[in-house]
Amino acid sequence: MAKIFVTGTAGFIGSHVAQRLLDRGDEVVGFDSVNDYYDVSLKEARLKLLNGREGFSFIRGDLADRKLMADLFASGDFEKVIHLAAQAGVRYSIVNPHAYIDSNITGFMNILEGCRHNGVKHLVYASSSSVYGANTTMPFSIHHNVDHPVSLYAATKKANELMAHTYASLYGLPCTGLRFFTVYGPWGRPDMALFIFTKAILEGKPIDVYNKGRMRRDFTYIDDIVEGVVRVTDRIAAPKPDWSGNAPDPGTSYAPNRVYNIGNNTPVELLRFIEVLEEKLGKKAVMNLMPIQPGDVPATCADVDDLMADVGFTPCTSIEEGIGRFVAWYREYFKV
Q1: What is the CB-side half-sphere exposure of residue 316 using CA atoms within 13 A?
Q2: What is the pLDDT of residue 95?
Q3: 206: cis peptide before it, omega within 30°?
């Protein structure tokens, strides 16, 4: 049994990860600001599933509060940290850029400092497929250069990877970044397409379908994400002995620093995604076909060879199964 600090436990991925860790007997200290970026009642409902469980405690606070974070780490005696809290959303980063600096840069700095000064054995943190930005070579590989972000959100996630590498190099802090690919499933985020589409279709309202539905996404089911997070957390990042500065590999390092993709490795066109949703809801969508939005990329696809090689796992839940589970949860939760 390990004592693990999990940030973002009121969030979609964080709440699922905390449940999984508790199920296997770990002690989990949860942390979240429970901000109003989206429906707070959904966040509170996720926390309700965790509160009262043996081994779980919760702290409400702001990642950017330096003293709070320093005190928390100093008294916490955390063996490992899974940092999933962040200001999310590509499009919102165009509207409110400062929120991303406060949470994703300043907040991440406080996490790194807490780990550095308090003997944390492994920091695992959420990156994003958004870091691939203007890259078009598919599938996206951790061994590809990712220096051309197309949103501030992506830039902050790339910055997190650089900051983590610096701490791994300077202080020997083992760090692993996880590039998540379009996560969906029960208890998902209301600002994401599946949630928005489901609500609108059931209410008989039209949905805005960007890039005229030709977007291709590596939709990854929440249970697969959680399995990847837990397996990677258990495998402490280590240096790659044959890493060379003469031909620097972006995905590995001479320092105890790693990055992995966690994606389904099966891109699906958005129109097909909507078609499956229609089948599961038993109702047709009214679609407004729109141009691509600023900050969006037309396609994503994850190369997960390194994840499979190192932790023996590849996400594989089909959208038919995953969307079916989401729709069942949605109907039960919202009583529709």
Answers
A1: 5
A2: 86
A3: no
Residue 66 confidence (pLDDT): 98
Q: Is 274 exposed, middle or buried (0-12, 13-18, 19+ CB in 10 A)?
A: buried
Which pair of tokens denotes residue 37?
């970026």
Distance CA 284, CA 219 (A): 21
Q: What is the pLDDT of residue 90?
A: 77
Is 0.85 surpassed by the pTM of this model? yes
Helices (H), the chain: 12-23, 40-50, 66-76, 92-95, 97-100, 107-117, 152-171, 193-202, 222-234, 270-281, 305-311, 319-334
Tell me the C-alpha to C-alpha distance, in Å, between residue 172 and each of 40, 114, 166, 234. Answer: 38, 14, 9, 17
Active site residues: 153
Residue 94 predicted with pLDDT over 90: no
Which phi and psi angles does 47 have, rounded to 5°? -65, -35
CA dist., res. 205 & res. 107, Å (int):
38
Q: How far apart are CA 229 and CA 83, in angstroms?
A: 11
3-state SS record for 147-183: CCCCCHHHHHHHHHHHHHHHHHHHHCCCEEEEEECCE
Cα–Cα distance, 201 to 327 (Å, whole number): 12
By residue count, the chain amounts to 336
